[in-house]
Amino acid sequence: MEVEQPQSEQSGEKDAAGKEPAxxxxxxxxxxxxxxGSEAVTATLKELTSLQEENERLLNSLARLQADFDNYRKRxxxxxxxxxxxxxxxxxxxxxxxxxxxxRAMQAEGPPEALLEGVALVYRQLMDVLGRQxxxxxxxxxxxxxxxYHHAVMQVESDQPENTVVEELQKxxxxxxxxxRPSMVKVAK
Length: 189
Description:
CATH superfamily of the domain at 136-189: Head domain of nucleotide exchange factor GrpE
Mean pLDDT: 84
Number of helices: 3
Largest sheet: 3 strands, antiparallel
Order of helices and strands: HHHEEEEEE
Number of strands: 6
Low-confidence stretches: none
CATH topology of the domain at 136-189: Nucleotide Exchange Factor Grpe, Chain A, domain 2
Structural class: alpha+beta
Shape: elongated
CATH architecture of the domain at 136-189: Roll
Distance between the termini: 138 Å
């Protein structure tokens, strides 16, 4: 009587540990796992490569954007200098006639009253030029004291209401609501 041996014994196959595999389906599953593992590694490598390419593309884009912004900033600074220079030139061009009239007044001969009248005309001409540029005199006398527009140097007894400007010692000026110099004033107690 012959005893049937299991199929694995008949084939004489043994695994690496010296044991016979229990089933051939296990062997094919192991081979399948190795194949799917290599596919996973390949997919991961492809994904890593695409991420590296995207990273490189984004870094290049960022570098170009930074260069563009730096160029924009420099161009804007140059334009600002040019605008400032142009504004100063326009103001100086408007002041040239005033300078001419002051030179004429210095060369003028005649009675002091005529000279005073000429200087008054030049003063009005100067104030007209500066007024076109936005210069305004800050009104002080009779108005309520405002620390934004007025600089009080004294408080004096007066019949006017308290905190009213009674006397202006030095005119104040503003350009379009921006104070260049506050009026120096005396204020009622």
